[in-house]
Amino acid sequence: MTASDLTVRTLTPAEHLDFVRRQASVSFLQTPAWAKAKPEWRAESLGWVRGGEVVGAALVLYRQLPKVKRYLAYLPEGPVIDWDTDDLAGWLAPMAAHLKQQGAFGVRMGPPVITRRWSAAQVKEGIADPEVHRLDQVAPLERSEAGARVVAQLQELGWRPQAVDGGFAAGQPQHNFWIPLAGRTEDDVLKGMNQQWRRNIKKATKVGVEVSAGTDADLKAFHDLYVHTAERDGFTPRPLAYFQAMYDALAAEEPDRIRVWFARHEGDLVASTIAIRVGTHAWYSYGASSTEKRDVRGSNAVQWAMIRDALAAGADVYDLRGITDTLDSDDPHVGLIQFKVGTGGEAVEYAGEWDLPLNGLLYKAFDTYMRRR
């Protein structure tokens, strides 16, 4: 059978979830529950069907243009299809036709396909080298032939790569940092961390930092610390209602999908995080830390607890999510990269987000508007 045997139709949330459960893992942004976490977008579960069986799926989020009933169809970190195929057109053409019928003037998707990898040591060396300013100046540990094949096919099919920091929505990161867990023990992971991380974990234990998992009733405590972190670090915090909606939606889909974690020292909350897991992939999604008592290393302690929890759940990857591609030691983002690099994991580059215009005039107007914002 070939991709030309495929048809595309709307799935029920139950059908979509059944497909997700049959995969080793998919992005949490491609679960049917994520639609409820994004109520400002109209959502649709989409399925690729062959011989009556659902063989691919996507969560599509539709954002309406002002004053007209036309939409950007957005598939964050999706769709979940056979990306190893040499016939991507057979998968993407029926999707585009369906979305156009739904009123989409353009499609934006983020293929969950890795193109390059770098080791923690390589990233560290890049930061230390005054001649190196960006990750792509460092020769990668691995270049993915499958990833290159996907990129080549998308270009041939008329899809357009998007700037990482632009987009109708806040685009998903193209570069992530994660810790491979498959086949490793806690000791293996700990030994892979740098000396500073191991020392900080040990210190947190010695001074009595206690880490525990909470429930949705504890989200207010997380959010208070998160707002404090935003004020200190100069970013705009999301409202508590956003985290409540996200928690309620994901927890209703699977009881162990999302968890909020707390690190306390002598009763004081010093760090808090939100973790998400879908199958064998675990994510560190949001984090917060107090300005006081930073020396008790609550952030390291809570990360270590989440890593151990991911290992116990059988996860193959602990994903610390996005990093910028800057390695310039003067860049304010480099501190976050150094924090993540200390875990001993690896930097991975995805194929990035791609657009397909379906209505040339509307897409051009939209693209011009986004560039001028």
UniProtKB/TrEMBL annotation:
Protein name, entry field: Peptidoglycan bridge formation glycyltransferase FemA/FemB family protein
Coiled-coil positions: none
GO molecular function annotations of the record: aminoacyltransferase activity
PROSITE patterns named in the record: FEMABX
Stored InterPro entries: Acyl_CoA_acyltransferase, FEMABX, PG_Glycine_Bridge_Synth
Alphabetized Gene3D superfamilies for the sequence: 3.40.630.30
Pfam families per record: FemAB
Cell wall biogenesis/degradation recorded as keyword: yes
Keyword set, alphabetical order: Acyltransferase, Cell shape, Cell wall biogenesis/degradation, Peptidoglycan synthesis, Transferase
Protein family membership: Belongs to the FemABX family.
Gene Ontology terms: biological process: cell wall organization; peptidoglycan biosynthetic process; regulation of cell shape
